[in-house]
Task: inverse folding
């Protein structure tokens, strides 16, 4: 943690407790987690359910939620090191009920949900009893241009009828996923940013189909993963709209900001883990009579990784601070910057760790290939690098108008 | 093809015929190939068996084999464009009975096998009736330093007994794989390059166990893939040694040279295919009102890809020519150079194609992620980049002694 | 400036005043500065002498000096944005009496000088009346390994006799340079870090020869530049040692830490200036019917530059903070990290600005080529990247012992 | 040289002779050459005049000229290795009367000149008695879009009057430069590629002013260099037009093709020289107790350099062959490719050599900084990388129309 940032004593104390919990309960159980998933892919691994009550008992629960009434009440800057620590292990975030996309969905419900919506969905989510998904991306539309979303939401009497196709819906294939927050077009005649609504669709509603799961570089990501969904004239009650019709784009934009920051924090943790694996490996592995750690190119790789990771972390903290002070709109550029910088950095660091592991680094014997796939996919997910660079460039050029 | 290289009219004619065959029979059947594998992973896809007789009838069979008596009798330089063309489709090489590791194994048997070995194994391999594997790499030993191989081959009476563990044995899990060429240590007291022997082990011999398959970035590569094998006191007849005891390292080294050239040629074809997919995609896909093909960064990516691919191809041809003239030892540096250059180039080109495809480029909807994984793994397989760079550096520095 | 860093109100106020001074007095006079140097290369340009009293009157004088009695009393973290702002113009640092190597020399004299040394040298330096140099690097010795320095300092009666050759001595050829701080070997038998002494050598002492000046990528850097010096049995009084014999290495090490931080800060300012020039140029310049600013590759360059510069700045602030808290030894890794990161970043950003300027970016019509040369040379000066990477790697690997 | 290229025995023999001449007469005289230029910058160094008759006597004269009547009669592919060899030393090309821009000007005159033009200019140029320049680039016009050239050529009675400003005119400040080939606009109403004419302007004509010379990264390039020229109502006889009015653009385009190939060949030679300097340096220089040549990062740099240089050379040969077969228009893409690839490669290789030399690599003690500046400037001169990439991209995308 950066000494000059002065996190509150509480955040510092939480970080210590979290690190201890990871050491004691998470890392030693990772092998079990992998084995349980390998045994039955789309079943939630029991070890997570086992650890959740322990994490909750340790006060490490819903740390992401800035609302002190229902969550930990931490600022984004305070949460950052906690989120990074959780990102070190693919199994960790869920243990602390801090995994995407539920975190973003809980924030949306906490801020904009009606009392009924909160009771039905937010409560069980906060308890870690159910999971949820966020259905925005569509195959026909460049995800870099969200106003084009075509899934239709039509009011028919008291009900709303949803028709469309979505893909890359994370967590939708998890058997515990009980509700989808679906972004669709409710009024094509409205101004561009008022055309869409966000609605709550119970996953067991007639017409909701999980068509297939999508691999990322060969990884299905079970039991979470990404799914393609069909909404085939799905009918839901009219009160399942969040915040009101035409407010969908606005909610989505606000949700994406913190979501991107969290993604980057976790990915940073994952890259730090990869660097640790790299260092441990090269200290042990001997080739041509001396440990790999003595090779100059390996040492240069380690140094470059440390330098790049520290820079990426500082940029994330800058974005977190901007978000805390001015909200997602004000922090737009800072968030665009980390969205480009962090996945690229993580990907390079993890790739170096793979190379240092030799053939072992390519296969299921380490988390490295899956970690790399996660980093690579984040150069496309939530807006490709190109779109975020354009955001940054526009602002920079605008300074000289 | 490079006009100044002047391939023989026969090679040119074969290339034309091969390209036509790919257009007519291979590309249109790729979807079926993927579907058949998805249906039942470790079964050879029927479509390949269907196409093999057609390829043979078209005179496109065993093109890789320089021996004109049993193969096409082409030089490496002549074979290069054919091999590249086959590399464009993951299903293609086997259709023409030109897929690794059988190609290398057939060469070994053709050159060094006894008449009995040829009858039993080379014949069926040349007919495309069985498949084979080459068991060299071991988990405990840095594969960059092959003289350390520990699997033991002990003479007991007339028989040989093999004990050890191998991994990354490509094709060993294919149900048609009937024989393994196993490199093991037969005499620890002999000079460093005379300690090992290469033996033929029928896969159904007692004590041969396929322990598991190894994923590469989440891809199992079925039905070919890579396996971990146990040789648990496997007993084979004494005449199953190839060329003689103590000659294993020598054969392996000679086999690796052309093998690396073939790998690079195929990978080049794959990267060319990726560039084609990129170009087609960006001409069709519209974002913010115009085709992606109009974006400057995309156009720069395309140009860089073309420039890098042409350079890589020329380097491969240079290596092929060196191999033809002086054999694997004389061409050692040229081969080391392509082994570094081609996977790096292919990886960059394929990665650009992925980015241009957006989320579709991450999943099973294109061959791109698997292609990328193939390129990435070749920076480690058959000697990591570091080892090949060292070969090149030593020679370069040696010029100024 | 980073909002969360909370610089003291005084630092913030100084920054505002400094920026205003640059706008009013420095940028508008840069053309004159260049013209005056072109007119007579090794004469200090009169415009600087003209501006110095103005800067002093504005309270912008000796800002670098942490000692509040003689300097501004700012912490390194507080000084950082000021130093960066001065780095934006090659003529600026001297205007504020904040230019290297005098800043480091003044710090050394302020902390370790005797009253006589302070009166004779520190006073005039603080007044901006004379200049000084720091003579450490030698042509025969890898500068990455400073303990090998060979210039001899021999006690002969009450005097010290110095013999040796130094090069890359910045500012030694400036006609106002009146004193050199010379690092030499005073006791070859002492422990490795106690062998050297730092002595004050008036430049007009018999035996001190400026042999030639050294260009950096064709730039002589007049009137400051870098010189090669001969010390030919130079005799100085015995009381010209700083801090005591055998303390030279210790002083040099302590001096280098803040020196590197300042170098990086200034270089960051220069790179920011380059990015400004890039943006202004591409908004104005038209090719193929539209401003360069509309080209996608240019926009990507701008975004990457902003992202990389912000990361580099944050890393520098991290190092400044570490230096403030624990001193140069404790901040060794943080300083090594910025010494690698900042020149690399600056060089890339400036190079993009050059490319965007076309042929104009190659010649004397902009500061860009000289700025690039400054960035490039800092990848070697004060320790090559390789040495600093090694420092970082050692610490990182040490975490897992 | 590439064995499979089969250069004619004559080309091979010339290459051997040229290499021997360089070893015997050129490299040993480089120090003198530098010293003579340092002594008096804009005077042609006498050593070159001394060597020219020797080169001519050795049959190494006007090798570039494909016309066998007046030149060596070599194809571009045959000339390539000779041109590369000359590029190894900055003083070499002129020794063999093969230096730009005279080579291009001689080709133009040989192909398109009238008998009078040939007698007056081509003769003395072929003898190496005078030099010439080619005045195309203008400061106001993006050089990437040559049809915009504004310098006016107006017919007034029998004479032509030229008015305009040109810059980056290589060799114009050389005292031996006696004639400029000037591209100007002779008919603004004509079709876009027929608007310009190419005229011969004796440098001593009234109204021709060399306004200043342009540095490239601090290097003035004396006695050759680059100049800014003013044509102030310069009056020349009407018969000084080459090929006819309106043919200027056509000639310029045809001239640029081979010119770019030659530039790339020479630059490759320079980069090879840098790699040689790197290797020699690291074998000799000791740091931390062992030669730099033992450091892994240095060895990786050497290997990467060799790999990249071989690829670049092969690409240049491909372009040379395309040029020989189809002329500049047909070889447009191949030439665009090398124009991007070679300077980038050369720059990387030279930069590594600089880093390996430490501070010595930054200054006038080696040719490396000037070599780097030459490579860097070629990413802009004769069309910036961006324009050539666009040429390549357009063709590549066109394959899928």
Result:
């Amino acid at each position: 943690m950066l000494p000059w940032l002065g996190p509150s004593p509480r955040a510092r104390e939480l970080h210590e407790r979290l690190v201890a919990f990871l050491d004691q309960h998470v890392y030693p159980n990772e092998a079990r987690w992998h084995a349980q998933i390998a045994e039955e892919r789309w079943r939630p691994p029991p070890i997570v359910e086992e650890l959740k009550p322990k994490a909750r008992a340790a006060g490490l629960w819903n740390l992401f939620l800035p609302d002190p009434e229902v969550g930990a009440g931490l600022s984004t800057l305070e949460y950052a090191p906690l989120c990074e620590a959780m990102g070190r292990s693919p199994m960790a975030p869920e243990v602390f009920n801090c995994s995407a996309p539920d975190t973003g969905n809980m924030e949306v419900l906490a801020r904009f949900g009606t009392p009924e919506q909160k009771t039905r969905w937010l409560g069980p989510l906060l308890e870690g009893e159910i999971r949820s998904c966020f259905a925005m991306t569509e195959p026909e539309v460049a995800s870099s241009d969200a106003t084009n979303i075509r899934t239709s939401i039509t009011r028919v009497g008291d009900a709303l009828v949803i028709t469309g196709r979505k893909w890359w819906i994370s967590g939708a294939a998890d058997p515990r996923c009980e509700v989808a927050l679906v972004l669709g077009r409710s009024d094509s005649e409205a101004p561009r940013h008022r055309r869409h609504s966000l609605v709550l669709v119970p996953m067991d509603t007639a017409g909701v189909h999980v068509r297939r799961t999508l691999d990322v570089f060969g990884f299905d990501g079970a039991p979470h993963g990404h799914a393609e969904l069909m909404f085939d004239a799905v009918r839901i009650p009219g009160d399942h709209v969040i915040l009101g019709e035409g407010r969908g784009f606005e909610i989505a934009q606000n949700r994406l900001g913190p979501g991107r920051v969290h993604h980057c924090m976790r990915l940073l943790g994952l890259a730090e883990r990869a660097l640790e694996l790299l260092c441990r490996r090269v200290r042990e592995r001997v080739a041509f009579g001396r440990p790999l750690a003595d090779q100059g190119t390996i040492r240069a790789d380690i140094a470059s990784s440390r330098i790049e990771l520290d820079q990426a972390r500082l940029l994330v903290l800058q974005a977190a601070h901007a978000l805390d002070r001015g909200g997602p709109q004000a922090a737009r550029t800072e968030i665009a910057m980390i969205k480009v910088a962090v996945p690229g950095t993580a990907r390079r660091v993890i790739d170096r760790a793979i190379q240092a592991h030799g053939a072992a680094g390519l296969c299921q014997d380490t988390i490295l290939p899956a970690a790399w796939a996660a980093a690579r996919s984040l150069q496309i997910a939530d807006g490709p690098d190109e779109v975020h660079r354009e955001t940054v460039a526009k602002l920079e050029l605008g300074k000289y108008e």
Summary: Chain C has a mean pLDDT of 94.
